[in-house]
Amino acid sequence: MASGKSTIGQQFAAEHGLDFADTDKRIVDRHGPIPGIFTALGEHAFRELEAREVAALVADGTPRVVSLGGGAVLDTGTQQLLAGCTVVFLDVDLDTVRPRIERETGRPLLAGDPLARWQELATRRRPTYLRLADVVLDTRGKSAADVVRELTQLISERQTS
C-alpha cells in the first residue's frame, strides 16, 4: 500500500512495450470509488472483486505488468494464480510512504491514524509478500526511474539464470 506499484509498473511496462493494468483502477472503473465499495459492501466484497480482476488478467494470457492492491495477495486463490507469474515485491518503509499517505486520504484501511495503520498492515502482510515474491526490490530513497532500472536488471538476471 502506497509502495509505488502503479507508478513503477506503468513505467516498467512502457519501457518494455508491455500492457499495464492496475486492479484498483479496474475496480473503480467498473464499480465506483473504493471507499464507497468498502462503505456499501464491506472489505470482503471488495476482496472478491479484486480476486476476480486478478483472475481475469492472468487467465487471458496477455503478457503484461499488473499492479495489485496491497491486500490482493492475502486471497489464497490469488496466491495460486500468481504462482505462474513473476511477482515483484517493492519493499518500502514508513518514512518513504509517509508523504504519499499524508497526501491521499481516500484509503479505507488507513482510516483513523493512517501512519500507524499502514505500519500495522505492512508488518502483517510482509511475510506473505516475501513468500510470494520472485524479486524483492528495496525502493527506499530511490526515484521511480532508479527502481525501474534496477528492476529491469534483476528481471533480466533472473531470466538468464
Automatic annotation (TrEMBL):
Cellular component terms (Gene Ontology): cytosol
Location(s) in or outside the cell: Cytoplasm
GO BP, sorted A to Z: amino acid biosynthetic process; aromatic amino acid family biosynthetic process; chorismate biosynthetic process
Binding-site residues for ATP, renumbered to this chain: 2-7, 107
Domain of life: Bacteria
Catalytic activity: shikimate + ATP = 3-phosphoshikimate + ADP + H(+)
Keyword flag Oxidoreductase: no
Keyword Kinase in annotation: yes
Pfam families in the record: SKI (PF01202)
Positions annotated to bind substrate: 24, 47, 70, 125
EC number: 2.7.1.71
Cofactor(s) of this protein: Mg(2+)
Family of the protein in this entry: Belongs to the shikimate kinase family.
Identification of the protein by name: Shikimate kinase
Lineage of producing organism: Bacteria, Bacillati, Actinomycetota, Actinomycetes, Micrococcales
Gene designation per UniProt: aroK
